[in-house]
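Run log // design_07
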């Protein structure tokens, strides 16, 4: 009899977080990956068919008496039967639990053979069972028509652990044999080792078996944030957090953390936490027994919720007590913000004002002068032949020239004046209260200093520069705003540059 071959859908799997290429090649070449028996592959083939039916599922499963018996046990368990009469046929069992859950059960019966497994694998299967029960409970509230799909994806969300343990048994020992307390920490450690986590590997493995694409995609995203997701995926993602809280060494604190996460979501309207915990407590033992997984330790839900509520109350008080500390921290943040604002006003290279701060301050002072009838002048400067300096000596020397020129301006301005770098090799000085004659004298002092003082040295040789300077005074034109005043000084400066450079021109004179 010819063996049934699985349908490999892994190449078509859409992964928003890709499977690293080295890991994909290793997985494809690994002979010890978990495999499925022929009956499970046959059920998968039927699941991919658009005409899948209860009868087709039942006929495929009936070829395996052990699987049929366990499926009947599941359908007659407290998880599904409740007050319904017992059933005795495979077709009735499939009809009762649904096609998606039949698929999940078939795969799980093949995979969860772990009674002798190590403690961490037992924890993985326990997490999967709790998540499956929790997700089905949530789906009954949020998306009843999708509860079978949700149950299946939640139950299979951690199957990637099987593949990683088969592929790298020694490397994963630090991740799985001494497990982290929180599942996200496990995922972080997997990313550190493999460049992805077991959810991505699990999606690939499911697609490799031929699991329907929506289920494989749901496995892939099962560990993402639940704050914004469609209802069915939200149930799956939240179920993992619930399972982690149930299995936590400090379940009450874990529940508090979960409740805080839920405070900002609409889920609090649908999630009756006590009813959910009771559902898990009632259904977990029988489901674990049917799947041959050791059930987690029994929880006293009433005491657990009471402790969680007390912790929540105590932590709320502690948060209130921290108000003074937070106010102090806020003051420090404001101080830091002021420091950052000061830096935002400064040119990074020269340490003097930048263009934005120059223009803002000039605009403020321009309006003040216009309101009170005062005056001010602008001195606009451009270092001559600066490109030649960069070309001849290099950009480091050019930067040194700019820095030294900025220091020269800082040394010659008075208190209340503002010197800054306007851009490139252009500089500007705002002189409040100064008329055109005083601004021209200021410009002459700069030109004289440049004759006497080199701006830098290159290979023990001094580098001197000259500047073209334009001056504009508020009193010498009908300037409507500060921009027109800058443009006037700029035009005067360009008059000098076009007239041979190294000189001073005053607008209107």
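design_07 sequence
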């Amino acid at each position: 009899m010819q063996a049934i071959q699985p349908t490999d859908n892994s190449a078509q799997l859409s992964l928003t977080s890709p499977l690293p290429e080295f890991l994909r090649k290793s997985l494809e070449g690994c002979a010890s990956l978990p495999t499925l028996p022929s009956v499970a592959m046959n059920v998968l083939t039927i699941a991919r068919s658009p005409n899948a039916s209860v009868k087709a599922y039942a006929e495929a499963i009936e070829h395996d008496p052990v699987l049929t018996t366990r499926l009947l046990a599941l359908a007659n368990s407290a998880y599904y039967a409740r007050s319904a009469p017992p059933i005795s046929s495979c077709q009735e069992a499939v009809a009762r639990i649904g096609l998606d859950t039949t698929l999940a059960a078939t795969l799980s019966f093949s995979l969860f053979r772990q009674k002798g497994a190590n403690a961490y694998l037992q924890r993985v299967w326990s997490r999967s069972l709790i998540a499956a029960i929790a997700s089905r409970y949530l789906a009954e509230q949020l998306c009843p028509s999708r509860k079978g799909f949700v149950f299946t994806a939640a139950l299979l969300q951690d199957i990637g652990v099987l593949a990683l343990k088969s592929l790298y048994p020694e490397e994963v020992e630090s991740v799985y044999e001494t497990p982290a307390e929180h599942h996200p920490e496990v995922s972080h450690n997997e990313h550190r080792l493999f460049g992805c986590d077991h959810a991505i590997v699990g999606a690939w493995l499911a697609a490799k078996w031929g699991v329907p694409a929506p289920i494989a995609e749901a496995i892939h995203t099962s560990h993402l944030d639940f704050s914004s997701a469609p209802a069915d995926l939200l149930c799956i993602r939240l179920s993992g957090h619930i399972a982690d809280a149930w299995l936590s060494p400090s379940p009450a604190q874990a529940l508090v953390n979960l409740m805080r996460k839920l405070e900002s979501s609409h889920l609090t309207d649908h999630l009756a936490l006590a009813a959910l915990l009771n559902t898990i407590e009632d259904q977990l033992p029988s489901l674990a027994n049917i799947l041959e997984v050791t059930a987690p330790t029994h929880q006293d839900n009433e005491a657990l919720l009471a402790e969680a509520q007390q912790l929540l109350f105590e932590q709320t008080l502690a948060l209130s007590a921290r108000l003074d500390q937070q106010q102090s921290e806020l003051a420090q943040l404001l101080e830091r913000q002021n420091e950052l604002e000061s830096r935002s006003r400064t040119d990074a290279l020269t340490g003097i004002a930048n263009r934005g701060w120059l223009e803002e301050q000039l605009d403020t002072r321009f309006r003040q002068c216009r309101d009170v009838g005062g005056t001010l002048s602008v001195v606009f400067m451009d270092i001559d032949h600066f490109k030649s300096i960069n070309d001849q000596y290099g950009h480091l020397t050019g930067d040194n020239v700019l820095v030294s020129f900025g220091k020269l301006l800082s040394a010659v301005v008075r208190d209340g004046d503002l010197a800054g770098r306007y851009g490139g090799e252009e500089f500007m000085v705002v002189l409040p209260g100064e008329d055109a004659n005083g601004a021209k004298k200021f410009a002459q002092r700069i030109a004289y200093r440049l004759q006497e003082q080199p701006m830098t040295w290159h290979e023990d040789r001094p580098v001197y520069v000259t500047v073209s300077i334009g001056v504009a005074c508020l009193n010498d034109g009908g300037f409507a705003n500060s921009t027109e005043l800058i443009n006037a000084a700029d035009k005067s400066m360009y008059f000098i540059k076009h007239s041979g450079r190294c000189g001073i021109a005053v607008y209107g004179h």
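Residues 34-111 form one domain.
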